[in-house]
Design brief:
alpha/beta; UDP-N-acetylmuramoyl-L-alanine:D-glutamate ligase; Protein-Tyrosine Phosphatase, Chain A; 7-stranded mixed β-sheet; 15 helices; 31% helix
Length: 462
């Protein structure tokens, strides 16, 4: 919604918005754009009299314990009959499928979907197109360091968008991405998530197939060849060209040969490019292949895409180094990462471990500090996977405040390697008591995590 507000502002609209507990980097971006942010959902905001209210999917008809509406502004909108729409619907009608003064014709929408890696892959793809001179528009669920903003209209016809399977709004329970109608769709991966709105994996697969149904016959579906769930999606029907990535060399698509930081890119088994960059992790190697396959569909050859990726700087809150504290025997490094699903946690921790091993620092410890904050994790749907997700960490620290399930019991298989605290200050004390010179403190959350990164750096500096 913050990125959508930025697009509306760039298009010349006066924009205000409301939310609760907004945190960086989005809060900083909105202030920088001169977008007024109002705390809370008071009905007093009706006095602003906008032309339209664009409603995010956090808003509902929920009631508090005293019977009062949780979102009184929404109730006032409904009662007054004022116009409202969802974020994806507004985006579709005003940016993606509506001529603007920027685009010379219909936008070529490139949508990146998947349980993991959407933000990073979308940022990679936008950067590849930018380096190719296509001047794309984009909407990304994070702030790519190469651009410094999460959204822009762009002056070219290509528009790159992160395509989320979460529901659109309380009045539109379809997945957001069905509104985007891409010509190029990336299906990065697919596993169970969003337990608050999906009953099982099959329900999410159906939504992904709804996305596939919107891709034209002259379009392209870029699909992860390693994912059985995505093969089931395509088996329901696909009417577009398909380009697989990952997996074996004989499927005719994009594969990689070599380490994640330096690898050859093969197209139908033939080497067509080489990627040398500072981004770690096998998952990012796959993200790169997906971005290159999508970029090829708008005319960017793999060699040019690989050259662009060499200067890709990643996204804020993706293995972002927040600071270092000097210690005799080795600096202590504090990272910030968005990982919140067990698979993402596992991938992030394992990626850092591989990075340390390749740098000859395999003896240095990783301290994983995380909070189960997503709706799926709060519901306890994946507690059994937590020990596996943390297996590459030397120590794990869990902030368990507000959970309805027993984090201590869930992490018991890790034994003394895991500690749990219900409040942030005790968690900080646990970490400070365990840290050693040369340690890597990996903080993982899809929220602000109470500003733990700055607090850790300050505590360790004492």
């Amino acid at each position: 919604m913050g990125g959508l507000a930025a697009l509306a502002r760039e298009a010349g609209h006066k924009v205000t918005g409301c939310d609760t507990g907004v945190y960086p980097p989005m809060s900083d971006q909105l202030r920088g754009l001169g977008i007024e942010l109002i705390e809370g959902y008071s009905a007093d905001q009706m006095a602003l009299a906008p032309d339209v209210f664009v409603v995010g999917n956090v808003v509902s008809r929920a009631r508090l314990a005293d019977g009062k509406p949780k979102y009184p502004l929404m109730e006032a909108i409904l009662n007054s009959g004022q116009p409202y729409t969802s974020g994806p619907q507004w985006l579709s009608g005003h940016v993606l499928h509506h001529p603007t003064h920027h685009a010379t014709g219909p936008r070529h929408v490139l949508a990146v979907a998947g349980t993991h890696g959407k933000t990073t892959t979308t940022a990679m793809l936008a950067w590849i197109l930018e380096c190719a001179g296509l001047q794309p528009g984009f909407l990304i669920g994070g702030v790519p360091l190469n651009f410094g903003v999460s959204a822009r209209l762009g002056t070219g016809n290509a528009f790159v968008i992160e395509a989320d399977e979460y529901d659109t709004a309380f009045f539109d329970k379809r997945s957001k991405f069905v509104h985007y109608r891409p010509r190029t769709a990336v299906l990065n991966n697919l596993e169970f998530d969003h337990a608050d709105i999906f009953d099982d994996l099959a329900a999410i697969e159906r939504q992904f197939h709804h996305l596939v149904r919107t891709v034209p016959s002259q379009g392209r579906v870029v699909v992860n060849a390693n994912e059985a769930s995505l093969q089931r999606v395509l088996a329901q029907g696909c009417w577009s060209g398909q380009v697989p990535f990952g997996g074996t060399l004989d499927h005719g698509g994009f594969t990689a040969l070599g380490e994640p930081g330096d690898f050859k890119v093969l197209r139908a088994g033939v080497a067509v490019a080489r990627v040398q960059w500072a981004i770690s992790g096998v998952h990012n190697q796959l993200n790169a292949l997906a971005a290159m396959a999508a970029a090829e569909h708008v005319g960017v050859p793999p060699e040019a895409a690989a050259e662009a990726l060499a200067s890709f700087q990643n996204v804020k809150r993706r293995m972002e180094v927040r600071g270092r504290v000097a210690r005799e025997g080795g600096d202590i490094t504090v990272y910030d990462d968005f990982a919140h699903h067990p698979t993402a946690i596992h991938t992030t921790v394992d990626g850092l471990r591989r990075q340390l091993n390749s740098a000859g620092k395999g003896a240095e410890r990783i301290l994983a500090i995380f909070e189960p904050r997503s709706n799926t994790m709060k519901l306890g749907a994946m507690t059994a996977q937590l020990p596996w997700s943390l297996e590459s960490a030397d120590l794990a620290f869990c902030h368990a405040g507000g959970l309805d399930w027993d984090a201590r019991a869930a992490l018991a298989p890790l034994g003394e390697r895991a500690q749990v605290a219900d409040e942030l200050d005790p968690l900080l004390a646990q970490v400070k008591g365990a840290v050693r010179p040369g340690d890597h403190l990996l903080c993982m959350s899809n929220g602000g995590f109470g500003g733990i990164h700055a607090k850790l750096l300050a505590a360790l500096a004492d």
